[in-house]
Structures are given as C-alpha cells and as structure tokens.
Amino acid sequence: xxxxxxxxxxxxxxxxxxxxxxxxxxxxxxxxxxxxxxxxxxxxxxxxxxxxxxxxxxxxxxxxxxxxxxxxxxxxxxxxxxxxxxxxxxxxxxxxxxxxxxxxxxxxxxxxxxxxxxxxxxxxxxxxxxxxxxxxxxxxxxxxxxxxxxxxxxxxxxxxxxxxxxxxxxxxxxxxxxxxxxxxxxxxxxxxxxxxxxxxxxxxxxxxxxxxxxxxxxxxxxxxxxxxxxxxxxxxxxxxxxxxxxxxxxxxxxx
Length: 255
Prior knowledge:
By secondary structure, the chain is an alpha+beta fold. It has helices at about 10-15, 25, 30-40, 90-105, 125-130, 185-200, 215-220, 240-250, and strands at about 1-5, 45-50, 55-65, 70, 75-85, 110-115, 135-140, 140-145, 155, 170-180, 205-210, 225, 230. It is about 30% helix and about 30% strand. The strands form three sheets. A seven-stranded mixed sheet has the order 1-2-3-5-6-8-7. The protein has a four-stranded mixed sheet with strand order 11-10-12-13.
C-alpha cells in the first residue's frame, strides 16, 4: 500500500469518490470537481491509497478548519476517509497518519474529525483508538479532536441559527443546503432539484451553497434538505421516489 498526493491523474477518480462505476455518482456531474477546484487554493489536501499495482483503494480529504463545516482555529479538519471495498484497512490507518504528518508540517496545532456513534462509515470509535477525543456532539455524530500543541483549542459544531428560510406563498418550497465535500450530499441536491422541476411552478426550489465557511456559520447548516420548512432526513442520498412522494403530498394540499 502506497499513499500518494492527489494529482491530475487521480483527480477524476477522487472526484467520484473512487466509484466511477456508480450511476448515483454520475448524477452529480462535475459538481464535486468544481468544489475541489474551489477549495484547493484555500488549503484542501487529499491523499490516495494505492495498492502495489497502482489501483486506488482509499482516500482521505482534509482542509483548514477555517474553510470547513465546523468552527475552529489553527486546526486541520478531516472531512472524509473512505477505504474502497473495505470496512477498515491499511489505507485507512496510513492515510490518517499521512494526513496528520502533513498537517503538522503545515503548522497546524491539531487535527479535528467527525465520526458516527453507529458502527459503520466514519466510526467515532476508530478515531478514539488513534488518540482523538470527543469534544462536541450533534445527533449521532461526534466531533473529535487531537491536539498537536499545548495551546490547541478544540473545535465545535455550528448550531442551527434562527435565520428563517425564504418561502414563496402558494407554492411548495424546497430548500437544499449543499456544501460539495460529499458525493452523497451532491446526489441528494441533484435529485431534489430534478424532482422539484417535475412539478413545474407549483414548487419553488432553492439551493444554498455552503462551500463558504461564513455561510455555514450564517445558517448553522452545511448539507440539509427542507420541504415547507420541515427538514427531510437523508443520510444516504434520498431516493427520487421517496422525495417525489413527499413533495407530491404537499402539492396536493395546495388550494
């Protein structure tokens, strides 16, 4: 297993989260690559795990916490570790270690990451075994922190603010917050946009770009989907059929 930096050769596969075969991923078009191009000048880093034959099998992406979806200073934030085809693996461990070494060299005072309480992708327990501690929680997600310096300050989740969603009277209002760091969020955004368009002028669709750190702070949201002000739980990308039913019920209630 070799850990290599993201380059022009691996970028197309990285932008598809190593799932170039996935029809779901193809729905997002070039949106993730546009996010990569946008954030790279602002400190986005990525590494790819490749086997002895050169085949990519895992990735890690991390960026300055000041450009991330959480609040903090002087840290780097791990947005995602993905080991293709493996629950855990050497690429997972080596990628994390390489990212930490890189962040230290860049002058970071510590590393932050997020993890889930539940025993699947981005497990909080995995990070804890490698020296991270939980410093904040929201729902089933933990925010984790590993200081490199004595004066490193822990990060925290942004909280939902009181800012109200814009709604158009007499129409079903669909609002989608999308950051771009995760293919799942991009798939949800594309499906929400496409299904909303099926209902013509009965549905008002708005997409709020949260790739800017200030916008996440403004709303306290990074990736989220709302229908008439009510949040729709997604997690995995929402299916077009399910979202069509949700919106269709609201449209049927219009006078």
